[in-house]
């Protein structure tokens, strides 16, 4: 069997696994099952997506935070919404989004620090809403007087915005540079919960 | 200026004003921005637009900054003021960047919301009860523990309400009626066929009545039958 045939077979195996899964499959898992390097999995997915695009299919394989999953193309939003009876289009208000963006780019961050970036505007309400909706979570406590909670984003956050990782955030590098972000926080666990 | 735009916060307004006054000379620029900011706050208050304290505190800060600029000062003070202005512009710039990023994230989310997965995962923002195993940490545990404690506390309260079905005062009145006709009785007779909660209430009622000397209780031995003799001569039966 030559290389191309092998690639073709693996490609179909990868497709089959992602096809039956009802939640994202990590590349590492596929690579273990098929005994091929993770790079080869990524290559298979790339090839498959090319094929879907060329044959004008309504779906493709999307890479989200947890791995690969079949997703329909945005053009077919309406019929699927009708099928599932989804009414809600967009659920975050601009203010919630503003606070979420500040947390996403500066995590881990305390509420007071969020307030400061917003010009000392109180963000208690937005932080609570984002926690409730599962976009952010408490990641630790900052080692300063009062040990305030540190907040960070969740996997659900990445999935909601269709991001693979935090570096995929819009203008991630630019903003990181501006804010000089990197390792200044020391997270700590709650005493007695180690 | 009759129609005023509404801003989310003082920095959002400052972002707009920095765009309006793109002058190279720092001092002139900041003074123009400060004047416009203060005018906005004054105008907004005139037409009863809701102005939060954040706007007022920012206005106060800006006016202080302006007075620092205009008053004669030493070279060192001058330097301090300039760096303060630069810091302010820096804050505004950072806020603007994040605000723009937030808008871009919005388009990401709206695109993502149009793509559907098999077995539609919950993207409505509602948190599911199931926590993915790799997201478990001590904070999730603490949160869950507090939830359970809270739930149990609520459950206890419900039990208390249920107990109220057998009201002690009512039971005393009821027993008093019985003793008017039959002054001699036994606890096991009174409690017979009653459910646990009511039997306990009867017992308490008897103890209270004995304390008020409305009846005498007698028991020969531990766990033995409790005999009751009502003091019918007692005048305060009506109680």
Structure, described:
The complex is a heterodimer of chains A (194) and B (239). By secondary structure, chain A is of the alpha+beta class. Chain A has helices spanning 3-20, 27-34, 38-54, 77-84, 94-106, 111-117, 124-132, 155-160, 172-179; strands at residues 59-64, 67-72, 136-142, 149-153, 187-188. Chain A has 2 domains: 3-84, Winged helix-like DNA-binding domain superfamily/Winged helix DNA-binding domain (Arc Repressor Mutant, subunit A, Orthogonal Bundle), CATH 1.10.10; 94-188, Arc Repressor Mutant, subunit A, CATH 1.10.10.10. Chain A is 48% helix and 13% strand. In chain A, β1 (59-64) and β2 form a beta hairpin. In chain A, α2 packs across α3 (38-54). In chain B, strands 1-3-2 form a 3-stranded antiparallel sheet.
Biggest interface: chains and residue counts?
A-B, 61 and 48 residues
Major sheet details of chain A: 3 strands, antiparallel
**Which overall shape of chain A is indicated by the principal axes computed on the Cα atoms?**
elongated
Number of domains of chain A: 2
The shape of chain B, in one word, is: elongated
How many DSSP-defined strands of chain A? 5
User: Which whole number gives the mean pLDDT of chain A?
Assistant: 83
Number of domains of chain B: 2
Estimate the mean pLDDT confidence of chain B: 79
* Relative strand content of chain B: 5-15%
C-alpha Rg of chain A (nearest Å): 21 Å
Q: What series of H and E elements makes up the topology of chain B?
A: HHHHHHEHHEE
**Sheet with the most strands: spatial strand order of chain A:** 4-3-5
């Amino acid at each position: 069997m030559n290389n191309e045939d092998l690639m073709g077979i693996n490609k179909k195996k990868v497709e089959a696994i992602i096809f039956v899964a009802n939640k994202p499959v990590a590349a590492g898992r596929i690579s273990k099952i098929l005994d091929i390097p993770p790079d080869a999995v990524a290559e298979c997915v790339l090839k498959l997506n090319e094929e879907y695009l060329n044959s004008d299919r309504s779906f493709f394989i999307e890479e989200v935070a947890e791995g690969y999953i079949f997703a329909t193309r945005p053009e077919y939003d309406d019929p699927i919404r009708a099928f599932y009876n989804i009414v809600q289009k967009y659920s975050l208000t601009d203010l919630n989004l503003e606070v979420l963006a500040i947390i996403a780019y500066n995590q881990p961050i305390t509420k007071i620090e969020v307030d400061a970036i917003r010009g000392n505007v109180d963000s208690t309400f937005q932080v609570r809403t984002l926690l409730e909706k599962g976009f952010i979570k408490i990641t630790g406590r900052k080692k300063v007087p009062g040990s305030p909670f540190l907040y960070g984003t969740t996997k659900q956050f990445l999935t909601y915005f269709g991001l693979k990782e935090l570096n995929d955030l819009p203008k991630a590098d630019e903003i990181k540079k501006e804010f000089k972000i990197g390792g200044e926080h020391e997270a700590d666990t709650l005493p007695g919960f180690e | 200026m009759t129609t005023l735009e509404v801003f989310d916060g003082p920095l959002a307004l400052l972002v707009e004003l920095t765009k309006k006054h793109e002058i190279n000379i720092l001092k002139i620029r900041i003074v123009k921005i400060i004047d416009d900011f203060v005018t906005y706050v004054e105008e907004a208050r005139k037409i009863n637009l809701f102005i939060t304290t954040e706007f007022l505190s920012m206005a106060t800060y800006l006016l202080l900054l302006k007075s620092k600029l205009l008053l004669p000062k030493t070279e060192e003070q001058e330097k301090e003021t300039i760096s303060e202005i630069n810091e302010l512009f820096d804050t505004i710039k950072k806020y603007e960047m994040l605000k723009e990023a937030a808008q871009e994230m919005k388009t990401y989310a709206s695109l993502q919301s149009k793509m559907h997965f098999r077995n539609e995962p919950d993207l409505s923002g509602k948190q599911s009860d199931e926590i993915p195993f790799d997201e478990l940490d001590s904070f999730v545990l603490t949160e869950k523990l507090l939830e359970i404690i809270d739930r149990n506390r609520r459950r206890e309260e419900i039990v208390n309400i249920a107990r109220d079905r057998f009201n002690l005062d009512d039971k005393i009145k009821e027993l008093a009626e019985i003793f008017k006709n039959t002054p001699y009785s036994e606890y096991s007779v009174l409690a017979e066929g009653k459910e646990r909660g009511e039997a306990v209430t009867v017992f308490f009622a008897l103890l209270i009545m004995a304390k008020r000397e409305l009846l005498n209780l007698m028991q020969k031995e531990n766990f033995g039958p409790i005999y009751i003799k009502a003091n019918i001569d007692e005048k305060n039966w009506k109680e």
